Amino acid sequence: AMECIGHAGAALGILSKNGIVLAAEKKVQSKLLDNEFNGKHSDTSCEKMFKIDDHMAVAVAGLTSDANILINWARTVAQRHTLQYQEPAPVELLIQGLCDMKQGYTQFGGQRPFGVSFLFAGWDVYLGFQLYHSDPSGNYAAWKANAIGSNNTAAVSMLKQEWKEDLDLDQSILLAIKVLLKTMDSSALSPEKLEFSTLTLNEDYKPRFRILGAEELNKYLQQAKEIQEKEDREKEKKKEAEKGK
Amino acid sequence: STQSTWGMETLIGIACKSHVVLAASGGSGHSILQFKDDEDKLHQIDDNKILACAGSNGDSVQFSDYVARNLALSNNRQGRKTTGPNSAYFIRGELANSIRSRNPYQVNCLLGTFDPPLPELKRLNDETHQNKPDGSGSNLWYLDYLGSMQKIPYATQGYGGTFAMAILDRYYKEDQSEQETLEQLKMCIAEVRKRIVINQSKFIVKVINNKGITRLNDF
User: Fold this and answer.
1) ipTM score for this prediction
2) I want to staple B139 with a disulfide (CB 3.0 to 4.6 A). Which of A2, A36, A203, B84 is the partner?
3) What is the reported pTM?
4) What is the bridge-based pairing of β-strands B11-16 and A49-53?
């Protein structure tokens, strides 16, 4: 199960002080793919990202069919909690519930484990913004930034270097673009190859999950490109200065 | 209900900004006999929550223990205390399920809590220098055996409760002091003793405030 995830499209998540960004590489890219349904894209899911509840979302790497089962289960767990307690399910509790189920499949009944890795982004009144990673074994841990899927080790080491405590949401999006550029196969990024979503808080302390549209994503890609070019120029200048010495 | 003393036990709850006061009649017995006059029906299910249960003798203890242990389990699983509303909705859910079962719990309850602020909301308030509601403060819920639940400033259970409600309607103010609340409680209990046939014996009184739960001298 872990093996097949290693070949799946990359996904990464970054925690910032005012929100969480989930970014993913679309594995299936084709002009014929219809994601925008007459210009209006879905508010709850796309190829790699899914809304679990108003305050929680996941990015997926691995077998999509397995992922669907787990996501449906997570959505049910979330509503079951809200039915009984009239509050959004605390993020960690929901993930524990999901991981307990995944663990069951590794121990009982002779079934095979779910071939999916998840990156959960959530907000609750107890711990604020949280990012969790869970794998087929049912293990989970909280992260400040993490990546799953193909080339995730390269992505994680890059995140380790570049992640800072005081990043805000926009900077996190740009960081995600930077990391994906390095770890994805393509040399240039365009909205057709990517999926970006954010979990933020509005003024009334209400969490909101949004999948970024093509136009908005383009703006960030443009910004990232300019920053990268600027950095490259400065590197060149430094090199010239060193040579001169 | 199966018990002939249904409604003869009085519960009174008063929630003000800085405190919640709960009182319960101490009588406990069977048919015409009263075994005890100082039974403590104000079950402390957490260090800031009291569930007052009246109704069937066995059911009330069974139910409050069940609630308390489930909430403790939840506390241990999540590494933090349950919030007041969380507990209230959980209890209501259990009562609602119970009434639809073959053998329902015959208990009427009052739940009083005094909650600390929710961590993240408090942090956001501090950060943005605002004073939005952060879940802290006093709460009182009326819960009955049919599964109905209402969050109200003052509530009662039992026949005697009707008289207490009238007095509280007249005198209750949200921002009154603990002293004033206890004065009003005294008036309520006096009225219950005067108007209800059965001997209402002692009343056990407990206060929940920012210091925690304190049992006062029996009225």
Assistant:
1) 0.76
2) B84
3) 0.84
4) unpaired
- Across the A:B interface, residue pairs with CB atoms under 8 Å apart total 41
Structure tokens at B102: 């073959």
How high is the pLDDT of residue A28?
74
Q: Which residue from A minimizes the CA distance to B92?
A: A84
A87 contacts B85? CB cut-off 8 A = yes
Between B44 and A105, residue with greater pLDDT: B44
Q: What average pLDDT does chain A have?
A: 89
Please say whether the dihedral angle defined by the alpha carbons of residues B70, B72, B75 and B80, taken in this order, is positive or negative.
Answer: positive
Contact call for B93 and A84, based on CB within 8 A: yes
Residue B84 CB-density burial (10 A; 0-12 exposed, 13-18 middle, 19+ buried): buried
Residue A120 has pLDDT above 90, yes or no: yes
CA angle centred on B175, ends B171 and B179, rounded to 5°: 70
What is the pLDDT averaged over residues B55-80? 91
Alpha-carbon gap, residue B54 to A25, rounded angstroms: 60
Q: Report the percentage of chain A scoring pLDDT > 70.
A: 95
User: Which chain B residues are within 8 Å of A83, Cβ to Cβ?
Assistant: 93
State residue B157 phi and psi, 5-degree precision: -130, 150
Confidence class of residue A202 from pLDDT cuts 50, 70 and 90?
very high
The Cα of B109 is separated from the nearest Cα of chain A by a number of Å equal to: 18
Cβ separation of B86 and A87 shorter than 8 Å?
Answer: yes
CA of A201 vs chain B CAs: smallest distance (Å): 11
Q: Distance (Å, rounded) from C-alpha A51 to C-alpha A101?
A: 19
**Which tokens belong to B86?**
């969380």
- Put simply, the chain B residues between 110 and 149 with a CB less than 8 A from any chain A CB are 118-121, 123-124, 132, 135
